[in-house]
Each structure stands twice: as structure tokens, then as C-alpha cells.
Amino acid sequence: MTAQPAQDHRQTLKREFTFGAAFAFAFAFISPIVALYGIYGIAIAAAGPSFWWGFIVVFAGQFFVALVFAMLVSRWPIEGSIYQWASRLIGPGYGWFAGWFYIWTLTIAMATVALGAAGFIANIVGLDHPTGTQVALIAFVVLICGTLVNLAGRQVLKVFMFASIIAEVIGSVGLGIWLLITRREHDFSILFDGGRSVGAGDEFFSLGGPFLLAIVFIGFSFVGFESAGSIAEEVHEPRKNLPKAVLFSISFIALVVMFSSFAVILATPENAELLPGYDVDPVHAVLTAQLGSGIALPLQALFAIGFIASFLALQTAASRLIWSKARDNALPFSSQLVRLSRGQRQPVWAILVTTAVGTALFLLSNIAENLYTMMVNFTSGGFYLSFLFPVVAFAVAVIRRRWTSGPFELGRWTLPVALIALAWVAFELVNIAWPRQANENPVLDWSVAIGTTVLAVIGAVVYFKVRRRIGRVQTSAVTLPTSNATVESEV
């Protein structure tokens, strides 16, 4: 299809992000602090120190997915990433549902990260045992402040992202080096200890075994690299910079998280379960035991910075995806959601929608028992479900020889990479969604399946209301200023 003239500049986002900013955005999306704190305790409880090897497994699988996304964003550097890629590979209906699940994954993750940040902030301000209402109120303040930062413009957002990288790298890597040099308790062999896990041999690696359960949690550590594509139309030289941002961000995050976890494992004292608070927060308990109680407040502040930066990136990605779908007339109230502010050309209404949804989730989580746990469980599965849409579509296009590469391409390795990425995402989605008896409430064991079904039903209702006006992907062209090239509306 021949590209039509570019859109009116009043509906065009400003290109104010460089490669460094795109990398910082993807890095902050799932920061090393969030990844480490979010999964360490439950992973080590599931499989002991040997869970660490799961990082290598998940990183290897996710790197193949990152290669696929790097090729996709190189060809189609368009705001909305997963939604836009899936739409162009198979069709607007297929892409619509890819975007629908991704929107909800991002907004639910945004709310859970804000609640996580609230817990650290409560400790910093002296609320040792905050109530659910207090945590929800603090999370709401984080939500409002984050919304104001996003509305303030890209320059303010970049400052926060770069500041978070500095704080997290210094904190994570610095603490890790110090622990290994001065507080090491074990040698490398501890990484082969299955801890208190039940079963051995084949049972350890079975579908219901401890190692694959640990991989469920680790899977949440290595998502977010795709978010660089969510801001594609705001990045200079996107065909050149975005593939690098995707691949560098997942690699750097993996190295930092693996190193930090390695240091904490080797610094964990014998009989660590006797440490105060170890069963609730093993990372904090080990650091406090080894470095003294004076580390508590700076550590809480560091965690809060990481969670707030992750929140900002999640809100930005969600709002850009909503705006991208609204530009294609693919959502209710699209004419309002597509509007940009005059000065900064920010998608104001799309940002405010994420604020409204986040507020509603805070209220519900404070009222409905176990909703927060369900939100956390669904988020991990939601990312892999969202990944599955473009990965399947890409594999089909390559097999049918209908794929045309952008500047970043793998040549004869394209098909093997596509098939490995597809196998990995399908496996990990099943692994995450599998209803293991990991909770006292069976509803929580089925939370990924339940959440997916509910969103699919609601999505079907919304889609049938808007499908006639979508027709085709409506984004006719996006001008790439470096070469006056266009991204065609291919379906």
C-alpha cells in the first residue's frame, strides 16, 4: 500500500528522546531493584539458592524474543509497539486484541508497582505497620505525582529515568561488590543447593517442581525491554536506536539482577531463616544483618526510587499505547483520547485514563481480599500473553516468506530465532498460567486464566462496538526525519 501524507503536526508526538533516553526508559520499566526485590524471596523459598540458574534460562529465552522485537521495531518504529506490529503482520482485529491485553497488563502492573513503592515510602516516613488504607493512599499520591511528571514533558521524564539508573546501578552493583569482598559466607557450590524444596532429581525440574516454579517468578524480571518501542515516535533515528535499546536494556538488566542476586546469596548467613524478618523480606534481612541497621533507611529510599521510576515508565508506555489505538479510531472516545497538549504535545487524556484506572484498582485492592495478589499474578502472565501475539505473527510471516526486514536483520538466522522465541514464550506462558497449588485459595492458583478470560470477554464486547470504524489500521504514515522515509500502513 502506498503511504499517504504524514499526519498533521498537531497529532504528531515530539521526537525528544535519544538512544540513551530510550535505553533508560526500558531499563526503568522493570528496574533491577524491582526485579530483585519482587522475585528473590519467593524464588529462593521455592527452589533454594539454586533458583539463580533460572536467571540464565529466562534470559536466554527472552533474548530471542528481544531479537524478534528488535527486527519488528526496526521495520515499524511506531508508537504502540506490540499492537502496531501484530496489526501489520496479521490484521487489525488480531492486533486490536494484542493491544487490549497489553494495555491492561501495563496498567495493572503500574498499579501494583505504585503499591510496592507505597510500602517503602511508608517505612521511610515512620509507618512501621501501615494499614491497607494507608498504603493505598500513599500509592494514590505516587500516582498523582507520577501523572504530573508525565504531563510536565519528556525532559522532566528523562531526568527521572537517568537519576534512577544512577541510583540503582550504584546501589545494586555497589552493594553487591561490597558484600562479595567483605561479607561473603559461602562458596560457589551454594548455587547448587535446592534449599527446603521437596523432591529431587527429575521431580525438581518437573512441571510442578520447584525449579520451574522459580522460573515463573523470574520471568517477571526480564520484561520491559519491549517498552522502548512504545515511545518509538518520540525517539530520534528510531530504526537505528530502538533495536539497540531493546537488546542493550535486557542484557544490562540481566547482568545487574544476576550479579545482585549472586552477591546476596553468597552473603546470606547460615540459618538465615532465624534472621528477623527473613520470611517476609530476605533481601532486607540479609543486608541488615551484614551491613548493620543503619543501611535500612538508605535501602528503603533506593527501593522507593526504583519502584517510582518503574511506575513512571509503565504509565508512559500504557498512555502511548492507548493514544496509538485511539489514533487508529480503535477505542471508545478515540476523538478525545488522541488529543495532544499544545506545548509539549503529550497525550493528556490517555495519561489521565491510566490515572483513573490506577485509582480504581487501588480502591478495589483495599476492599476486595486477595485482589492485589491476583493483580501481581496476572501481570507476569499478561506480559507473556501480550508477547505471544507478535511472536506468533512474526513466525508465521517468516515461514510464509512474507517478511521484509528493516535495517536490523538476522538474515538466514531469522527463522530459527523466530521459532525459538515462539517456543519459549508459549512454554513460559503455560508455566506461569499452570494452576499449581501454590496458594491456600484456589482462585489465586487460577488467577492468570481467570484474568485472561474476563479481559477477553470484556474485550470482545468493546471490539464489536468499534470494529466497523477501524476497518484498516488507520495510521497512514509516520515520517522518519533522518531519511524522510515512511512507515507504511501494511496489513
Characterise the protein shown here.
The protein is an all-alpha fold. The chain has a single domain (14-469), classed as Amino acid/polyamine transporter I. Helix content is 66%, strand content 1%. It has a two-stranded antiparallel sheet. Helix 3 packs across helix 15. The longest helix has 33 residues, at 92-124. It is globular, with a radius of gyration of 22 Å. The termini are close together. The model is unreliable at 1-9, 473-477 and 480-491 (pLDDT under 50).
Q: What is the number of strand segments?
A: 2
CATH class category name: Mainly Alpha
Our estimate of the beta-strand percent is under 5%
Q: Helices and strands, in N-to-C order?
A: HHHHHHHHHHHHHHHHHEE
What is the spatial order of strands in the main beta sheet?
Answer: 1-2
Second rung of CATH, namely the architecture = Up-down Bundle
Instruction: Give the N-to-C terminal Cα separation.
Output: 9 Å
Question: Which class do the helix and strand fractions yield?
Answer: mainly alpha
Could you give me the name of the CATH homologous superfamily? Answer: Amino acid/polyamine transporter I
Largest sheet composition: 2 strands, antiparallel
> So what's the overall shape?
globular
Radius of gyration: 22 Å
Total helical segments: 17
Given as residue ranges, the uncertain stretches (5+ residues, pLDDT < 50) are: 1-9, 473-477, 480-491
Total count of domains: 1
Write down the overall mean pLDDT.
Answer: 85
Helix content: 55-70%
- State the CATH topology: Amino acid/polyamine transporter I
